[in-house]
Structure formats: C-alpha cells, structure tokens
Amino acid sequence: MSKVLIFTEHQNGTLKRSALELLSFANKESLQISAILVGSHSHSVISELGSWGVTQIYQLNDTSFDQYNPELFDAAFFEVAQQATPNLILASSSSLGKDLFPRVSARLNFACASDCTHLEFNNGQIKATKPLYSGKCLADVQFETTPVVLMRANQLPVMEKPNKNSSPQITSIPAPSLDLKTVVKNIVKGTSQRLDLTEANIIVAGGRGVKGPENFKLLNDLADVLGATVGASRAVVDAGWVPHEMQVGQTGKTVAPTLYIAVGISGAIQHLAGMSGSKVIVAINSDPNAPIMQKATYGVVGDLFEILPKLTEEFKQVLAH
Amino acid sequence: MKIFVCIKQVPDTETKIKILPDSSGIDAATVKWVVNPYDEYAIEEAVKIKESLPGSVVTVITLGPKKRVADVLRTAIAMGADEGIIIDAPESLDPLSTAKALAATIKKEGEFDLILTGQAAIDDNASSVGPMVAQILSIPHSAVISKLTVTNESFLVEREVEGGNKEVVQMQGPALISATKGLNTPRYASLPGIMKAKKKVLKELDLNGLNLEKTLGTKFTHYRLPPEKPATKIISGDASTQVRELVRLLRDEAKAL
C-alpha cells in the first residue's frame, strides 16, 4: 500500500478546507496516511485526523514552530520525511506550502510540483495537472522520483468524513537546534480578516468601472454577505485605489474559486488568465462587448452602481432562508 | 557588496499561447520574449543597492537556449547590472535541475552577500527555484518581499503572507530574497545603458560543463488548451429583474452558493 505524508494545515485548531481536500483524496485512493501537524495549539486536531483515517501524526508542537521560519521548518520537515519514508507528499499550494516544500524537496532530492489543479493515480503512478502561463494552457506533470504535490485550494472534492476512529500514533518532533540566520521581528496584521484570494471560495473583484477607491465599499458589502474575498484588476491597483496583494491576474494572484464576480472589469488577457480557473464567473459590466463577457457564465449588462446594492440585498434575503 | 540576480526569460503576458501539434510544449516561434516581470523588481533592487553602496557588483544569471535568453541579460545590464552569465541549457529544464545549475554557477564565482530573484516566473508560477537555490547553498531565504533595508551584513525585509498580513524578518547574510510587486518601480533602460549592454561580453557556460549529477525531477507532458467554456448566458431586464434572475441561476442552475 502506498504511503502518503500530508501536511495538514489548520487555523486555530480547525483543519483548513485544503487539508480536508487532501485527506479526502488519500481516503478515496485507500492510501496509508501520515500527517504533519504544526503548532503548540494543534492538539484539538488530533482526534479529527484520526477520524480521517490518519494512523501516524508527526507533531511539531514546540512553541518555536508557532511562527514560520524557513530554516527551522526545513530541518524539521526533512526529519519527518526521513522517518515517514513516504511514496508521496501532499500539501496545499498556500503561501507557506510554496515557501517551504521547494526547499525541503531540494534537500530530499524529491520531485516537487506546485500550483497543481488535478491529481489522480494512473497505473499506480501519480499524475498531476498544472496550469501554465496563468492557465492559458494546461499540462500533465510526471514525477521521476518521489512526488511532492502542492495542490491549489478548492480543486479536489471534500468527501463526507469517514469517521474511521483510528487512534493515530503520535511522534513529537523537537525543534532542531540550529544557528538560525532568520529572525521574525514582527507581524503586521492586514486590515482584512477574510480568506486569502488563493484560498477563497467566492471572490468579488472590481475594475476601473468602479470609478474610485471609495466605491469599493459596494464590493465589500457584497463580499460580507457572501463570505467572499475582494480582489481587483491591475488597472485599479496601479492607480493606487487598493493594495497590490488584491491584484488578480498573471502578474498578481492566480485564483480558482467556485464563484468569481467581476464588477466593472473589462477583462484584459492577463486578468482573464488569472481567474479563468473559476468554476462559475459572473460579469457585471456596462459594456456588452467587454472581453470578460465572452468568458463569463452569466453576463449582466448594466450600471453596477444600481445593480450591486440590489444584489447584496437579494443575497441577504436568499441566504437567510 | 557582491550581488547575484537570477532572472528568467518568459513569454510576454500579452502572448496568446499556441500548442505544438504533438502536445510536447508551446510554439515558441510565435512568442514575444521578455524579462519575467517579478525579476525586474529584483534587478531594480540590486541596482539601487549598488547605487547606495559604491563598489558593489551586480551579476545577472539566466539559464536557457543561449541565443534567445541573452536578451534578458542585456536588458538587465542596460538597467545598470555589471556582468551577465548565461548557462546554455535546453528549453524548460525542471526547477530542481535549474536550481542546482544556478547554485553551482554562483559557488564557482566565489563569495557573495545577496542573491535576488523574482517571487515567481509567470510561465510555470512554481515559486520554487529561489528557495531551492538557498537550500543548496545552505543560506537563509525570504520570499515574496515588498520592502528591503540593507544594514551591516543583515537584511531587514517585509514579507507578504496570507490575507494581506506581513512579516518583518531579519536575515544574516549571505541570503536569498525573492521580490514581489511593491518593492520598487523598475526603471527604463537609458540610451547609454542600452549602448553599453549591446557591447557587453557575456560569460557563457554550458549546462553539461557544470558536471552536475542527473536530477530526477518533474516533466511536463500533454500540453493542451483549457476546455472551452459554454456560451455566456446574458441576463436581461431592468436591474431588479436581472438581480433576481442572477441569484436564482447561481443557486438553482450553477449551484454556486
């Protein structure tokens, strides 16, 4: 049986959806599952992992692991991989995953592919799909040695929890004693408490048609009702209306939510590339000939200043039921 | 200060991608090639450091088919970099092989203080080569940096993480830093800079000449265009009708709520 090692990310003791997606895949394929669990407040996740069929947990629960440090995590994850001897490593292509796993893979001489959107076994070989050029094309990824696959969030289905109640064996991994060259001095909290764009299930994004930074309030109101994250086109980021971490597109964030609502965005090729992986796309625009209208699932031609407040109200009513 | 900048040549973001008939890759013939946009921030930052610390040397390195990728080194030199090194290699080498070649080249060149690169190349968006190079050279790295302050042998950076949060990180050099938007505004090359870059003799290395062990890595196959989306459903009527119909479709037809 194939042994998979999954990095199960959690937030304040709740497994992230991306972790549930990876656990679902491992269950579907009947793999023997080990998990890496990080943080001194991660105890509540252990029984949850057991019910997902995890039989072995490598716990990094020293307080020094509460803050990400590439050198420290690199050494600890290397140690875990040495002990677990997996045939496959799975993690989310999150900000943390993309920072850490290339470094660990280089140390292990494993084959790492980030930003993958599909995963399957084909004659016993793992095969991933990866968008290239921000989704302008796709390719299959083949692995010549032990695969380390970093999956984008919201790509794999989450199954009903199998309630396996395997009591996982727990191995505590101590903090490696290293002469660390990296020190995190301070964390500056962003203003937004919303999910990151790359993990969001719903995104409301605004472009030049929004006419000014103050009007992003209309998008924020809609996002609040939907539990969505707000994004933006490059044009409005370059105009200084919103910070650049909100930019969706080939030189910003590549996103793939279930629902993408583009408000006043005409749809430059770079923007379309960055969001074309979205499952359902709504375009609200005054111009019926805007390129985004070709890509949208649903097109609403009209005045966004009239439509958005009504849409927020309508969602409020529908979602209350 | 001795600075290396690792850069990559990528298709311009305006490029429409065409797939080769045998699905083995994209048709490179129709592509307009440019410096990876995130690498421009890395070049600019290196040149800025050089301007503030006289005596610094900025060396740009790239890897790929030498005839084609030489252009990005000349662009960087026109912006103010001093030296350029090409590692002549086939198209689309995998990230770990690329990182090993870059690390071996930097090691050969001797001591250094800082390696800069872009936080991702917009072609494969892997964000992998930077942290891999740092691991191979046993130095710290900090990725997705929007602010950098150089002090005595240490680097103070602001790193963008999830949800708009930022970490302020201090690293003892030598270190690797990957740049993102916001770090600076890359300059346009000056005319004298362009003239100088044209005449500059670039150092050429051959990938095989680096005598690296064969790396087992990743291979991309079966290139294809994304599946066509079904035609757009245009929702008409006055604003209230449009909104009601849209929400109904999202709930009942698309099941997106």
Would you write up a description of this structure?
The complex is a heterodimer of chains A (321) and B (257). Chain A contains 9 helices and 18 strands. With 321 residues, chain A is α/β, with parallel strands linked by helices. Chain A is globular and about 60 Å long. Chain A folds into 2 domains: 3-172, Rossmann fold, CATH 3.40.50; 202-320, 3-Layer(aba) Sandwich (Rossmann fold), CATH 3.40.50.1220. The termini of chain A are far apart. Chain A has helices spanning 17-28, 45-51, 70-84, 95-108, 216-226, 234-238, 269-275, 292-295, 304-320, and strands at residues 3-7, 10-11, 14-15, 32-38, 54-60, 88-92, 111-116, 118-122, 125-132, 137-143, 147-151, 169-172, 182-188, 202-206, 229-232, 259-263, 280-285, 298-301. Chain B contains 6 helices and 13 strands. In chain B, helix 2 crosses helix 5 and helix 3 packs across helix 4. Chain B is globular, with a radius of gyration of 22 Å. In chain B, strand 4 (57-64), helix 2 and strand 5 form a beta-alpha-beta unit. The longest helix of chain B has 16 residues, at 37-52. Chain B has helices at residues 37-52, 66-79, 95-109, 129-136, 191-199, 239-253; strands at 2-6, 9-11, 33-35, 57-64, 83-88, 114-118, 141-151, 154-160, 166-172, 175-179, 203-206, 218-224, 233-235. In chain B, the strands form 2 sheets. Chain B has a 9-stranded mixed sheet, with helices on both faces. Chain B has a two-stranded antiparallel sheet with strand order 2-3. Chain B is α/β, with parallel strands linked by helices and 257 residues long. Chain B has 2 domains: 2-210, HUPs (Rossmann fold, 3-Layer(aba) Sandwich); 231-257, no CATH class. The chains are: A alpha/beta (321), B alpha/beta (257). Chains A and B meet through helix 3, helix 4, strand 7, strand 9 and strand 10 of A and helix 3, helix 4, strand 7, strand 8 and strand 9 of B. Strand 18 (298-301) of chain A pairs parallel with strand 13 (233-235) of chain B, so a sheet runs across the interface.
